[in-house]
């Protein structure tokens, strides 16, 4: 079997190395690249005036830490911290040296179900994110009476697929599985895929981390979707290496 890994940066590279150690061939082809975001320059001021900070991804944590380090500033200790996903929470904890609250299932809906985010009237909340996304969190917390602001600490830029022969190469290389870790990646992949390869693409085993992306994939015609419930590399590896049996996969979809 061969796996196409589309997640960007070191996380994608690390997953390919993990697959290699399991004897599984993989191709790393990032669909987006990450750059400094519009909120990078304002973050030192933004974090001083909030009661709650929510990090939506590890990328948000990494870019925020990079910014604060350059300004010789630490994350404030008076703030309550939340993260979507356990790995994002653990990454943030390394920098703030205090507990980060996260839901068991890594999505916006389960984050909003956390008791600590139920009573937030008049609380000042900052959401660390990339360019776009997580509007449900913003809207729900505003409805609960909070003062909510975004900081777009990093920017996601689509990577064009310039070599059109790559599709033929992937197909003849026996790729049967593809890892997509965001709805944006899925949308960009479909836009880049030549028409003659769309049917082939949609027959691959598609590994995605959330119910939201699963529904998006179903709408565009993917037939074999495995919702891993997490974008953490060890969990993706467990699914790709067959440590989760079919019944367990269906339970998490």
From TrEMBL:
One of its GO terms (biological process) is protoporphyrinogen IX biosynthetic process. It catalyses: hydroxymethylbilane = uroporphyrinogen III + H2O. It comes from the Bacteria. InterPro entries: 4pyrrol_syn_uPrphyn_synt_sf, 4pyrrol_synth_uPrphyn_synth, UROS/Hem4. Transmembrane segments: none annotated. One of its GO terms (molecular function) is uroporphyrinogen-III synthase activity. Keywords: Lyase, Porphyrin biosynthesis. The keyword Lyase applies. Pathway: Porphyrin-containing compound metabolism; protoporphyrin-IX biosynthesis; coproporphyrinogen-III from 5-aminolevulinate: step 3/4. Its EC number is 4.2.1.75. It holds the Pfam family HEM4. It is an enzyme of class 4 (lyase). Belongs to the uroporphyrinogen-III synthase family. Catalyzes cyclization of the linear tetrapyrrole, hydroxymethylbilane, to the macrocyclic uroporphyrinogen III. NCBIfam families: PRK05928.2-2 (NF004585). PANTHER family: UROPORPHYRINOGEN-III SYNTHASE, CHLOROPLASTIC (PTHR38042). This is Uroporphyrinogen-III synthase.
